[in-house]
Design a protein that fits this description.
Radius of gyration: 14 Å
Order of helices and strands: HEEEEEHEEEHE
Strand content: 25-35%
Low-confidence stretches: none
Shape: globular
Helix content: 25-40%
Mean pLDDT: 89
Structural class: alpha+beta
């Protein structure tokens, strides 16, 4: 296993991840933002465990689509601001095989930033209606 992938499977307690994120497109994915709560980091798909954001592909209304795109762009911007940490959640993977992780910088969850800006909800196991 290369050293960049090992940070995804172990906890980093300091802001040591520093990668350039774009918005994911078609084709192979290595390091990019899928939507407001899902990223690819060094070839591993990660679901941000502490939040839920509006959908960008299977949305229920135009408002959800708009908010989902805003959340996606904001997450990419946050990740590109500088080094961040990747922390394990209450379990390693979700039912889709995505790694469940909490992303933080200076001890603050990046997901919480999205919540504060109205672009995400704290994850409680159920989706809210963004419409």
């Amino acid at each position: 296993m290369d050293s960049s992938r090992s940070v995804i499977t172990t906890v980093t307690h300091s802001d040591t991840i520093n990668a350039k994120f774009g918005i994911c497109g078609a084709g192979p994915r290595s390091t990019c933002v899928v939507d407001g709560d899902t990223i690819w980091l060094y070839g591993t798909k990660i679901r941000i465990a502490d939040i839920n954001t509006p959908e960008v592909s299977n949305y229920d209304c135009q408002n959800e689509s708009r908010l989902g795109m805003e959340a996606t762009r904001k997450l990419a911007s946050l990740l590109n601001e500088g080094p961040f940490s990747v922390e394990t959640a209450d379990r390693d993977e979700d039912k889709y095989g995505r790694k469940l992780r909490i992303l933080s910088r200076d001890g603050k969850s990046l997901g919480a930033v999205l919540v504060d800006e109205g672009l995400a909800e704290e994850w409680n196991g159920e989706r809210i209606d963004w419409c």
